[in-house]
Amino acid sequence: MIISASRRCDIPAFAGERLMAALRAGELEVRNPFRPGDARRVSLRRRDVDAFVFWSRNARPFLRHLDEIDRGGYPYCFLVTVTGYPRPLEPGVPASGDAAAFVRELAARIGRRRVIWRYDPVIFLPGMDIRFHAANFTRLAALLAPCVSRVIVSFFDPYAKALRRLGKAGIDAGTAGGSPMQQAEMLARFAAVAAASGLEIQTCAEPGPAAGVASGKCIDEGLLNEVFGLNLSYRKDAGQRKACLCQQSLDIGAYGECGHGCLYCYARR
Question: Model pTM?
């Protein structure tokens, strides 16, 4: 079993102490995100956990726990989202310079192969066109390429909650996902920057390879097998979107608990 921590909340930033307490206890109660009264006990004992995949925008508060996790023998990797968007869109996330600093610290601790950069979502808004994203991605790649070996990109999906939230902020997000032509041009530019920076590039939950960018997986059993000598076979996660290729995992997060406050986030209440 792969434990995803978490698509629903930045556990390393906001719930690391709670996770570590559960790890010491050997189990965790996980509530169904759509039926909170429906809960299950999940074993976190080493024999029951193949690996942890940590999702974060600010893993620094969690770094102090890595020695304990290592002593427990748990394989793990990090998916770190760094987008560098204007502050009104991302009021609570670290500045990109600070994010790059803790990504460097994390990579020095566990190796760059176990740290994956996510530039997600790519969102087209006034002042955030193809040229903006090309320049922004290039700037971030220069900061992060020494610390990561892979970047995963994905385009904004128009979830109703996110559209309402953006609309209340006076942002018309009706075309924020971009047209097929915009997406293809954007991917081609990202691919060129990634190649020049020595980065693998993949898309997340986008239909088919495009502009030389392969469809990829955030939770990737192939990477876990490579890095940790595991023997996981591929099983698509049926709980994710149709185009998502992620390996089956169990997410232990809860919606509405993240403090970053990103306006475009699907996981906010």
Answer: 0.96
Q: What is the dihedral of CA 173, 80, 154, 31, to 10 degrees?
A: -80
What is the per-residue pLDDT across 81-110, written as a single tens digit (0 to 9) for each? 999 999 999 999 999 999 999 999 999 999
**Measured distance CA(214)–CA(245) in Å, rounded:** 11
Contacts of 232 (CB under 8 A, 6+ apart): 2, 50, 221, 224, 225, 247
Q: Are 12 and 62 in contact (CB under 8 A)?
A: yes
For tokens 């996110």, name the residue. 162
The burial class, CB within 10 Å (0-12 / 13-18 / 19+), for 114 is buried
Distance between CA atoms of residues 43 and 164, nearest Å = 37
The CA angle 10-12-16, to the nearest 5 degrees, is 115
pLDDT tens, residue by residue, 103-134: 999 999 999 999 999 999 999 999 999 999 99
State the SS3 of 11-46. HHHHCHHHHHHHHHHCEEEEECCCCCCCEEEEECCH
Pick the closest to residue 123 from 169, 179, 177, 80 (CA basis). Answer: 177
Supply φ then ψ for residue 20, to 5 degrees: -65, -35
Read off the amino acid at residue 10.
Answer: D
According to DSSP, the β-strands at 200-204 and 214-216 are: parallel
Alpha helices in the chain (DSSP H): 11-14, 16-25, 66-71, 96-110, 130-144, 160-168, 180-197, 221-228
